[in-house]
Amino acid sequence: MKVRTRVAPSPTGDPHVGTAYVALIxxxxxxxxxxxxxxxxxxxxxxxxxQASEAAILDSLHWxxxxxxxxxxxxxxxxxxxxxxxxxxxxxxxxRLLAEGHAFTCFCTPERLEEMRVAQQAAKQPPHYDGHCxxxxxxxxxxxxxxxxxxxxxxxxxPEGVCxxxxxxxxxxxxxxxxxxxxVLLKSDGLPTYHLANVVDDxxxxxxxxxxxxxxxxxxxxxxxxxxxxxxxxxxxxxxPLLRNPDKSKLSKRKNPTSILYYRERGFLAKAVLHFLGxxxxxxxxxxxxxxxxxxxxxxQRFDVHHISLxxxxxDTSKLRWLNGQHIRRLSVAQFLETLGEWGxxxxxxxxxxxxxxxxxxxQSRIETLADFSALIEFxxxxxxxxxxxxxxxxxQAGEAKSALxxxxxxxxxxxxxxxxxxxxxxxxxxxxxDVLKMRFxxxxxxxxxxxxxxxxxxxxxxxxxxxxxxxxxxxLRTALEELH
Length: 485
Ligand code: GLU
What we know:
Elements: E1 4-7, H1 17-32, E2 36-39, H2 51-63, H3 87-99, E3 103-106, H4 110-122, H5 138-146, E4 152-155, E5 162-167, E6 171-176, E7 184-186, H6 194-204, E8 209-213, H7 220-230, E9 236-240, H8 260-265, H9 270-281, H10 286-290, H11 295-301, H12 317-329, H13 333-343, H14 353-363, H15 370-381, H16 388-391, H17 398-413, H18 422-437, H19 441-453, H20 461-468, H21 470-484
Parallel strand pairs: 1-2, 8-9
Antiparallel strand pairs: 3-4, 4-7, 5-6
Helix pairs in contact: 1-9, 1-11, 6-7, 9-12, 17-18, 17-21, 18-20
The chain binds glutamic acid (GLU).
């Protein structure tokens, strides 16, 4: 059997990291099974679905490097791949369920349903449809339809017994039919609900493995029953554990940014986000993947749905930042510069082109995101203001700091312009510390860092001074000295 998987996002907001996670796993499962991966847009909620959201979802998944064999943008033999374009298909299928007695027409008004809900709540019962229209006589139904009374179509649910199905990750799942509601399949506007459209499409699109979030486990009995009603072989199910915040609560926008766009804008590399999502699915996969030439290929080759652990994977953004930094370090300087440009970084005009590669080379290993780069190298364009307090620290008093800055200025002034490069600068500064100041270099390093870069941590000091040039470096030392007076 050829494996066919799908991701079926609803285009109702920003592209969610959870969608990318599910998409990645389905992609890997399809490739590993020498099969096909389908992207289907589940836009049956017409009020909330937007074109912009659909475009952003496709764009984000492409950005991550994922591609699909069939989908609304690439077409395919099982289209259309947007549920809003498949209404006639769903209506035909509902007709069939009605004709075969598996579904019924429900004319209950919203007011009646609301009263029912309130009464159930008062009686501490879970909300469920009470079956009011289940027993309508065919003539009554005909008459109400002829009178164009608004209605929906609901599926029948066995009054008792247990629904049993297998989950690839969770094993045998049993859910009491009494806890399953008589689900609306066709809404009063004639459009299907998720449950109907999802089952019909998975069947018609020949999906063999439904791999989706665990929030759908409780819906699975409805789906299993629909397959039975239609006389279709159900696909295999695997319900993935939900992504969690570090405090183990369900991943939410309030605690963690959840939009892929956010990570792209903040200077995360697609490769790092992909690696991170993969590590959520398979915690053992980190280290070897760094060296993979084609990360996605390496990921699907080692993919096994059974490696997915049911413990809620934690969406830990500090781990993502770390991974991102690791991937940035692995770029060649040329690739790093190109990546920065593609991301939209613009060099400050005051940083001469001939210094940019050197700056990139020394900054590359000191950032975790591309966005960090701008902040880190800003001091090349303009010296940030520094105060006396910035320059001093508990082991360096004002008098010592002044001598250190003054001695450095004098010593560095002796370096000819043509020999102004980092190793020479370093040797002279160390000499000042040891011979003139009688101190260890590391006790004055912080002072020089702040004087030159505005910060006690930055790119390597001697490189920074080489890049800034002799006169600008000396000027900054002098400015710092003046600050101490
Ligand atoms: N449209 C559903 C979602 O957005 C798809 C669920 C499924 O994969 O069955 O999560």
